[in-house]
Amino acid sequence: MAVAYIVVIAAVSFIARKAGATSEGFVRGGRVFPAAVIGLFMASEVVGTTASIGTAQGAFTYGISAAWNLGALGIGFIVFAVLFARRFKQLDEVTISGALERGYGVGVRRAASVIMIVSLLLVATAAYVSGGAMISALLRIDANWAVVIVGVLSSVYVVIGGMRSVIYTNLINVFVKVVGIVVVAVSAYSAAGGYEHISVSLPSKMLDWDGVGWNQIGAWLIAGGGAMFATQYVVQAMTAVDNEAKARNAGFYTSLVLIPYGFLAALIGVCAAVVHPDIDSIQALPTMVVRLSPILQGIAVTGLIASVFGLISALTIGASTLLLKDFYQPYFNPSDNERKAVRFARLSTLGCGLIPVAAALGASDVLGMTFLAKALRASLAVFVVLMFRRPSYGSRQGALAALCLSLPAVIGWYAAGDPFGIDNAYIAILTPLLVMTIAQLSGRGTKASAPLARTPSTAATASVADSCREAARTDT
């Protein structure tokens, strides 16, 4: 079943290859799509192995409240749909860094691009760790070889078809993932003896919705929900719909998948703590899959492999798009040679898929790495909110300084073990806010531009059009 799934994915990528014949087609998909398609596509991007195995791993240790890890993302997409989807569609920028440049200038664009690329590669590393652990446990092969296999297969098919293949294959992926997680959750719940047996077998805190602590839940809401405002593949997906209403609806469709998926993944981790209390926490979900019958195992394993492929495809094409638009085109291809651009897009996609493989061979904290990546994106979310809601706050120079400080501050705080019990997500938010507040109080520097403000020529054209309409009404 897993092999058949991989063959189907490869076939879809091959069919979609013509859309990647140009650089814009490679990064945008070459056409517009319905809101439901893009919503499910974004859900598939988010629900990777780090979400499935990582959430189950957290629930194995802390209980059902680990579901907030994905629930926060669902809430984030609702906020994104209400407040920002329409605005991003109006900008029609294919990169988050390009959107921020509208308000804060080219320096911020480059800094934001670096932060986003680091964040995406961190998530890719975590995806390889969890995917390798899963394949190693289920297929009984060496964990390092499993990581390499995952890296090669999940990178190559994106190189073939570009963004359109990512969208089409992720529609398949999200269906397989949801079916797989439901199968494992139902089986795990039955194996754990139902609610009554679970409640007497585990400490009561394991079944509390705030068992992980409100400090952690708040951090998830900030880092997870906030990260959705400033995630490359989310912004990139907004360019694949043809109007603002569809952009907003796509965000709602995504949340409808993420919130229940988070609960099911957490339920599996809790059940694993009852059935196999002595295993390593990262094996919580794979161990429950092993208990299934062969047919159900095939469904579950295929769903988990789809989780790897879906996430990695979004990460690799997102990172390669940033490299293409923000670094290669302006510095190495200023003449916009299409052939060179397409070649670089494909090579950078392959590189972004394979580079995290080396890091994954020595990493283990799946949830921690994923959360750090979300925290880094939450720093960018501060500027998204300010740019759209309060562009006069702070300055362009303050924004650049804040971004340059945010990356080492957040990573350093995470490496130090979150001193004083303050999660690195709070540092990710406070650092840019503090720097921008200092810039605001000092009164120095150039104020940001309103990204959706009309240019003088546009305003003049609109004024003429309004006058013509008024004259027509008068004549009538």
UniProtKB/TrEMBL annotation:
Pfam families named in the record: SSF (PF00474)
Membrane topology annotation: Multi-pass membrane protein
GO molecular function per UniProt: transmembrane transporter activity
UniProt entry tagged with the keyword Transport: yes
Compartments where found: Membrane
Source species, domain of life: Bacteria
Annotated keywords: Membrane, Transmembrane, Transmembrane helix, Transport
Family membership: Belongs to the sodium:solute symporter (SSF) (TC 2.A.21) family.
Protein name (Swiss-Prot/TrEMBL): Sodium:solute symporter family protein
Organism in which the protein naturally occurs: Streptomyces malaysiensis
Taxonomic lineage of the native organism: Bacteria, Bacillati, Actinomycetota, Actinomycetes, Kitasatosporales
